[in-house]
Write a structure and sequence with these properties.
It is a single chain. The protein is mainly beta and 319 residues long. It is 6% helix and 38% strand. It has a single domain (2-317), classed as Sandwich (Jelly Rolls). It has 3 helices and 19 strands. The strands form 3 sheets. Strands 3, 4, 6, 7, 9, 15, 16, 17 and 19 form a 9-stranded mixed β-sheet that branches. It has an 8-stranded antiparallel β-sheet with strand order 5-8-18-10-11-12-14-13. A two-stranded antiparallel ribbon has the order 1-2. β16 and β17 form a beta hairpin. It holds the Pfam family Polysacc_lyase_14.
Length: 319
C-alpha cells in the first residue's frame, strides 16, 4: 500500500491510504480494508466489517437496531442473508439482500423493488455527527451474476440537512432544497457509474458540478448527474466492491464544501467549492440506504427478478 499526502491541488494535506492496483484491475485483487476508510486520521467511527481494525472504530453487527436504521420503506425488505460465494478470499459472511422483482422500479411504485431506509449509526456515533463537519460513509456491494442494467438505478449514499427537512431530499424534490443534501451512487446502461446529487441549487454548485469529467448533467426537475463514466460498476457483477463517500460541510456563507467518491480505494470523483448548507443548523445525518431501478417510468424497470447484496457498512468522522 502506498501513502500519498494530498487529495488534489487545492485540498488540505492529509494522509490517504492509496491501493497499488489501478481501477481496471480491482475485480481480481484482494479486498483491502482501507477501501472502506480511505483516510487514516479519523476521530471516531463504526463498522460491521470484521476486516477493519482501527483504534477509533467500533465494531457492531449488521443489524437495524445497532446501526440506527429508521424510516424504512414498508413495501420492501432488507433481509440479512448469507450471500453467494465470491472469488475474493475476504468476502463478507452476512449481507443485506435487495430484491428487484421483474417489472419493479422504486420502492413506492406499483411493483416495488430494492429497498430504502436511513441509517445514523450506533448511538454514540450519531451523537458525534451532531457536531461533525466532515465524514466518510461506505459499504461493500455485489450484484448477482448476469445482471441486466437497463437504463439505470440508484445505490446507497449519504444525506444531511436541517432536522426533518434532511429526509426525502430526492425524487424530484424542489422545495427547501437549501435545507438538505443527498449523494448516491448510480448506474447507467452498460454499467456506467456516476454520483447522483441533490444539493442546494446555487449558481456556484451548478458550475462546479457541471465541470466534473467525463460528463455531468443537471436535470431541472430531479438531481444532478455528476461524473458519469468516471467509473464502471461492471466489477460488482458476481464480485464484491467497496463504495465510499466523503462530505465536508461548507461554512455557512462560504462555498468551501467538498464531496468525494471512491470505488475500491480509488478516488474517482472529487469536487470542492460547493455549498452543502446555508445555515449552521444543517448537519451530516448518516446514510440514505436506497437502491432500486429508476427513474420513475416503466421503461427503467428490472427486466427479470434480480438481487444485490450490501455489507461491511462503515462510518467515520474526520472532523
Amino acid at each position: 500500500m502506498n501513502r500519498i499526502t494530498s487529495y488534489n491541488d487545492g485540498f488540505s494535506p492529509r494522509v490517504l491510504l492509496q491501493p497499488q492496483n489501478p481501477l481496471s484491475e480491482i475485480s481480481s485483487m484482494r479486498f483491502d480494508p482501507s477501501y472502506l476508510i480511505p483516510i487514516s486520521e479519523i476521530v471516531t467511527g463504526f463498522t460491521t466489517s470484521c476486516y477493519v481494525h482501527h483504534k477509533n472504530v467500533q465494531h457492531v453487527p449488521l443489524a437495524d437496531k445497532e446501526l440506527g436504521v429508521h424510516k424504512v420503506a414498508s413495501r420492501t425488505t432488507h433481509n440479512l442473508v448469507i450471500p453467494p460465494p465470491a472469488s475474493v478470499s475476504n468476502a463478507p459472511q452476512l449481507a443485506w439482500e435487495a430484491v428487484y422483482p421483474e417489472g419493479s422500479i422504486n420502492p413506492s411504485a406499483t411493483i416495488p423493488g430494492g429497498f430504502e431506509f436511513y441509517l445514523s449509526g450506533p448511538t454514540n456515533f450519531s451523537r458525534s455527527l451532531e457536531t461533525a463537519s466532515e465524514a466518510i460513509f461506505s459499504y461493500r456491494m455485489m450484484l448477482q451474476d448476469e445482471w441486466e442494467w437497463v437504463k439505470g438505478g440508484k445505490l446507497p449514499g449519504k444525506f444531511g440537512g436541517v432536522g426533518n427537512l434532511s429526509y426525502s431530499c430526492s425524487g424530484g424534490r424542489q422545495e427547501q432544497r437549501d435545507k438538505c443534501f443527498d449523494l448516491r451512487a448510480m448506474w447507467r446502461p452498460e454499467s456506467v457509474g456516476e454520483l447522483y446529487t441533490y444539493l442546494p441549487q446555487t449558481p456556484e454548485n451548478s458550475a462546479r458540478l457541471s465541470s466534473v469529467p467525463p460528463k455531468s448533467v443537471g436535470n431541472p426537475d430531479y438531481g444532478f448527474s455528476v461524473g458519469r463514466g468516471s467509473y464502471s460498476l461492471g466489477p460488482a457483477v458476481g464480485e464484491w466492491i467497496a463504495i465510499a463517500f466523503r462530505v465536508k460541510l461548507n461554512e455557512p456563507g462560504s462555498n468551501n464544501g467538498e464531496i468525494q467518491l471512491w470505488i475500491d480505494g480509488v478516488s474517482v470523483i472529487n469536487v470542492d467549492g460547493l455549498t452543502l448548507r446555508t445555515t449552521e443548523e444543517a448537519r451530516i445525518k448518516g446514510m440514505h440506504f436506497s437502491t432500486f431501478f429508476g427513474g420513475h417510468e416503466d421503461d427503467w424497470a428490472s427486466p427479470k427478478d434480480q438481487k444485490a447484496w450490501f455489507a461491511d457498512v462503515t462510518g467515520a468522522i474526520l472532523a
